[in-house]
Amino acid sequence: MKKVIPVLVAVILSTTAAIAEETVFRDIQFPSSKGKLANASLTFSDEAKAITVRVADGREITIPYDQIQKFSYEYTKKHRLKQGAAVALLSPGTGIIIAFTKSKSHWLDIDYREQNVPSVLILRLDKRDYHKVCDAARMHTAEVRSSHCESSFHKFFSRLMSSCPRNSRHNYGLSS
Question: Taking a C-beta distance cutoff of 8 angstroms, is the pair 53, 28 a contact?
C-alpha cells in the first residue's frame, strides 16, 4: 500500500501537468516593419488557450487558439554568395566552395482573424527547432480547432504533418 500511494500521486501530477502545458521556443525571430529580424520567443499556452510571441524590443502578440485559421510551414534556400566572397579574400578556394553552398531559412506563417479581419503572423524558426514547433502547433491547437472543424480536417492535418518538412510549404489548417 505504501508503494501505491506515491505512484498514484505521480500519475495525478503528471496528468495535471499535461493538461495545462506551456511550450516555449526561444530561438525564434520576428521580422520588423523595416525588414530586420528581431529575437523573439514563441509560447503555446494550454492554460490561456493562446499563442504568445514576445519580441526582444518589448512587444507582445497574443493569438487565441480559436482565432487561428491555419499554420503554414515554408523554407527558403539561397546561395551563400556574400559569405563566400568575404572568405574568398582570405582563401579563394574555400570562398568559392562556400559561395556555392546553400542555406535554408525555416518560416512559420500563422493565419488568424482579429476582430473579423484576416491577419498573418510570420516567424523565422531555428533550424534545430522547426520540427518541434510544427509538432507543438499541431498538438496544442488541435483540441480547440477540432470543436469547430469537420472530421476530415484531422486526416488532412495528419497527412501534412507526417511529411513535414520534405516539401517547401505545408498548410496546417483549413483555408478560408
Answer: yes
pTM over 0.70: no
User: Which residues is 119 bridged to in the sheet?
Assistant: 112
| Distance between CA atoms of residues 107 and 134, nearest Å | 10
pLDDT in tens, 86-131: 887 888 888 788 777 887 888 999 999 988 899 899 999 988 988 8
The domain spans of the chain are 21-173
Q: Architecture of domain 21-173 in CATH?
A: Roll (2.30)
Q: Are 38 and 30 in contact (CB under 8 A)?
A: yes
Q: Cell numbers at residue 152, please?
A: 476530415
Q: Do you find a cis peptide bond into 118, omega within 30 degrees of 0?
A: no
